[in-house]
Structure formats: structure tokens, C-alpha cells
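Human: Here is a favour to ask of a fellow structure person. Comparing notes only helps if you start from a blank page. Give me a protein, with the fold worked out from its sequence. Please set it down just below, with no commentary around it:

Assistant:
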Amino acid sequence: MDTEVPLPERDRTDPAPRQDERSRFGVRTQRYALLVVAFAALIAAVNTFVAQPFEIPSGSMENTLRSGDRVLVDKLAYRFGGAPARGDVVVFDGEGSFVQESGRTDYIKRVIGVGGDRVTCCDRQGRITVNGRPLDETYLYPGDTPSRVAFDIEVPEGRLWVMGDHRADSRDSRDHLGDPGGGTVPVDKVIGRAEATFWPLGRRRSLDGARG
């Protein structure tokens, strides 16, 4: 006598497995969506508070930086008691100093003088001096002179005198001597310090050695 009871064949049209599958798929989709949102929020937070990429828009910082280079800017460089130093390459908001109206106001230049410095151009050898000492500007664009514009300014506390490395192709503090602030930029308008180029790949390098 056959004691095995045949099991009923599961109806292939039974919707239960498919419903369960849809539920699992829905949970996975929600998890992926949450991961994407969390990742986007992390990137936004990093860009806002830690580091941000910037594209160089002109040749004013050649040969240190060329038009189209992408640089990584450290936004924490001056947040915890630090301050821009002579030779630093900084990105800053030029509204109120380099431009008086809203619009594209981010600039990248080199710090030449800080608060309390007397910056002059030029000595008998054609060099810029800071507090009477000539600068050894090895970063200047080949063939450029330190400046064709004469100036003698004492940088107010809390402000910076900035210039491009390609002096013949840079609109910088020299061009704003008659503007509010006398061409100087408020320290609190500095977005961060340029640390490295990361694009194009062939120009990847740290900017530590480019600070003069």
C-alpha cells in the first residue's frame, strides 16, 4: 500500500511569491535610494565645509596654474586659528573689493602681503619688497617683470594684498588701488587655500612647493 501522500502541486499562477519578490525589490530600491541621498549629502557637506574643486578660468596664475586646471581648495586651512600667509595661493570672494556688484566673484591669486605689511614696487633691481625686503619670486611667469605698476601700500589688519603669477595678464590688487579697501581683500572673504591640481591628469601635483 502506498503510504506517501502526494503533495498538491503549487499553482504557478499563485501571486504570493511574486508579491513577496516585489516587496523585497521595493526594500532594496529604498535602500539604494537612501544610499544615493546619503552619498549626495556627504559630497555636499564636504564641498561646503571641507574641500572643494575649482576650475581655473584664466591665465592670470600661469605658469603655476593654467586655464582649465582643476584645483582642490582646502576650506579648513584657516578655520581653526590659522591665517593666510605670504606665498599662499588662495581662492576668495572678491565682492566688495575686486567687484562692487554681484555675479562671478571667485578669484584665485597669490598672497603677497598680510595685515601690517608694507608692500612696495619696486626697488632699484625692479623687485617687489615687503617690509623693505625684496621678494624672490621664482613662481613668476617667464619673461614677466614683478610689476609695471608702481605702488606703495600698507596692508590694513585683517586684509591681504594679492597678485597673480602672470603679472602681465593678471587683474589683481594693483588694479583696485582706487577702490574700497585700496585693492586689499578681507581675510574673512577667503574661501580656502589651493592645495593641489588634480586635472588634467598630466598636471597633477601639490602646490606646497609653489608657495615661494
The longest strand covers residues 190-199. The two ends are 99 Å apart (CA to CA). The first helix runs from residue 16 to 49. The chain has one helix and twelve strands.
